Amino acid sequence: MALRETLFWLFSLAVLSSSAASDETLPQNCSSQAQVFERLSADLKVVVECGENLPSHWSTQQTAALLHSMRNLTDTLHKHQLKECQDAEPNNCPEAEVHDNGGLACVTINNKRYCKPMCNYGYDFSFLRRSRLYDECSEQTRYKWDTQFIGGKSLAVCNEHSSQISGANTAYFPKDQDCLTTKKSSQLKNSIIEGFIAELKNRGIQGQPLFACLVCG
Fold it and tell me: How far is the CA of 171 from the CAs of 72, 129, 193, in angstroms?
């Protein structure tokens, strides 16, 4: 597909996504969204690869319009990937807030919800938590997250930093493999979740893991 056609299609998709986010009553042409989004990843790669050769006749207003629509699309996609951890048990627990510049690996064992905050490479936790691998929400915590932060749902903050020393070694995504890069690969994602489950077992938390997920900020 030519770059011009790809950009036009992406613009149309972004506008469609923006409309869908603001109106729950989707028009008939949204019934084929699954096919539309299947093309998205491949066509985005075309735009990235040809990014230095954008159509010369495009005005700055057209570029700004596309950026605005793509921002709406990004917001929609971000909300969609967060749904992976919704409806996890115990139902009394509030959904943990996912921090920027990292993500949360979560799992339920014996009706207790455990979430492990992680930072992307180049970021570190705002609080020292080397021995604090995870946060818990359960009947024992009165169905509140036993977080270091006041407010109950924020588990971590990842700030830009040249070194990563505040958390455990496994609490950081590797270089060139941030949370989203990890999540797009089932092998990498499963490795993170399985590693977290193994760490819980090493701390004496035994049982069938349920509602395992990885969400990115």
Answer: 30, 10, 12
